[in-house]
Amino acid sequence: MTKALIGKKVGMTQIFDEATGKVIPLTVVEAGPCVIVQKKTVENDGYSAVQMGFGDMRDKLANKPRKGHFAKADAAVKKVLKEFKLENSDTIEVGSILKADTFEPGDMVDVSGISKGKGYQGTIKRHGFSRIKETHGSGPTHRHAGSMGACSSPSRIYKGKGMPGHMGFEKVTVQNLEVVKVDAENNLIAIRGAVPGPSNGIVTVCDAVKKRKKA
User: What's the sign of the alpha-carbon dihedral 112, 116, 117, 123?
Assistant: First the structure.
């Protein structure tokens, strides 16, 4: 990984491809400015990485350890702190500012974020189960999960069985998305397709791990 930024999902829009006239769905991400707060080195920490801060935070909302951490880097206190293992982390200095122009149109990226929380959901919404028949005799169980297995053998429910439960609000990564446009002046990146999370949700944009050829 050579490039990475922390950003905020602004929302979705669309543009038309000049060559084909087809609609291209886009997600706009406010990526950066990100300040380098700390460097991890092999000598001190056993590995090489950089720590980035994103999103302004009022001074009075930060506790003393957080204030001291940013003061050491001579940087303003930020809301979000994340660490990235970059191949060129040795060349990046503490206090450096990374902006949206870190990426270029045509770059393939992986975008990670926290998905929208759906609360407690049944098996149909959570796992895509089918409904039970709605004819006479089935009772008021049309959306129930159905049989879980025989009681005599195996006398238990196997691990991994699709069950009702909490849905969403978990880390999701969408791989191999294309950067279509970069607005360096406003720190905006337009990414083809959808990315996880709601509007104003925090996301990370990194180089694609499993790069594929563009269609």
Answer: negative
Amino acid found at 83 = E
Q: What is the pLDDT of residue 75?
A: 86
Residue type, 151: C
The whole-number average pLDDT for the span 11-16 is 91
Report the candidate in 40, 37, 31 with the shortest Cα–Cα distance to residue 95: 37
The rounded distance, in Å, linking the Cα atoms of 87 and 91 is 9
Neighbour order of strands in the sheet with 78-84: 78-84, 49-56, 34-40, 97-98
Give me the torsion for CA of 33, 211, 195, 56, rounded to 10°. -10
- Residue showing tokens 């609360």: 119
Query: Quick check: pTM over 0.85?
Result: no
Quote the strand ranges of the chain, DSSP E: 4-16, 23-31, 34-40, 49-56, 78-84, 97-98, 108-114, 119-121, 165-167, 171-183, 188-192, 202-207
